[in-house]
Amino acid sequence: MLPKEDLLKHSENKETLSHIIDQAEQAIRTWEPVATDFLSPPELFEAQAAFSRLSDVHVIAHGGYPQAERQRLVMARAELPLEETSVPLAAVSIAGNFLFDTATHRDFLGSLLGTGLVRAKVGDIIVLGERGAQAIVVPELVEFLTTSLTQVRSVPVKTQPIELSELRVREPKKKEMTTVEASMRLDALASAGFGMSRSKMADMIAGGDVRVNWKPVTQASRTLQSGDLVAIRGKGRLEIGEMSVTKKQRYRVQLTRLV
């Protein structure tokens, strides 16, 4: 049995993590890999952190493309091999003429859920402007969607399966930089990484707009470390890389910003 109470002790997504632990125990018991539904970034981060402490089970996550936000997690006994293809995923094209009735991510998600799907069965949605969208879903629902999803807003659509390789994903822009700071404070590193004043960054942190490792943080003085991820809605993500101390006892930090 896995140490469930210990793993849940500091969880902010206790119900989801509890269910994932139950699924992991099933994977150990049956010697068969078990897949979760799609997890949000905070849920995924917490689950991966919990399982990194265990030696008898290993996990792999995938959402259809490298930078997918919503991903499924597959768990198996440590003796069994896992790779990205072990994660059951499928994609559908939602094609229509949206030239005169533009649809947003919210519109496509609303139409998907309007067929009776629950949010956990839907991964990322890639909006293609006037041509429609593509959605990543659990494979067992593809056939259902091809007959049930026929309209988004006022626009008739044709929903059909596509290969994951056909996803029209925009590669994120990556900017790498080095900063030297007096401390590893969140406001200092984030202001350098996102290219804004420290006072403005402090205001965003206080306003709840900044997440560290997908958890909201409202203290500008929060100390970061290598491996942390800082996210600001609409502005992308910042990865905290290697850190070294200079002769003047300042911190030289490698930063990678993804937009």
Task: Describe the structure in brief.
The chain is of the alpha+beta class and 259 residues long. The chain has helices at residues 4-8, 14-30, 41-51, 105-114, 142-148, 186-194, 198-206, and strands at 34-39, 57-62, 71-77, 90-95, 122-127, 132-137, 151-152, 155-156, 158-162, 174-181, 210-212, 215-216, 229-232, 236-245, 251-258. It folds into 3 domains: 4-83, 2-Layer Sandwich (Ribosomal Protein S8, Chain: A, domain 1); 90-166, Alpha-Beta Plaits (2-Layer Sandwich), CATH 3.30.70.330; 174-258, RNA-binding S4 domain (Structural Genomics Hypothetical 15.5 Kd Protein In mrcA-pckA Intergenic Region, Chain A, Roll).
What does this structure look like?
By secondary structure, the chain is of the alpha+beta class. The chain folds into three domains: 4-83, Ribosomal Protein S8, Chain: A, domain 1 (2-Layer Sandwich), CATH 3.30.1370.160; 90-166, RRM (RNA recognition motif) domain (Alpha-Beta Plaits), CATH 3.30.70; 174-258, RNA-binding S4 domain (Structural Genomics Hypothetical 15.5 Kd Protein In mrcA-pckA Intergenic Region, Chain A, Roll). It has seven helices and 15 strands. It has helices at 4-8, 14-30, 41-51, 105-114, 142-148, 186-194, 198-206; strands spanning 34-39, 57-62, 71-77, 90-95, 122-127, 132-137, 151-152, 155-156, 158-162, 174-181, 210-212, 215-216, 229-232, 236-245, 251-258. The strands form four sheets. It has a six-stranded antiparallel β-sheet with strand order 10-15-14-13-11-12. Helix 6 (186-194) crosses helix 7. The radius of gyration is 21 Å and the shape is globular.
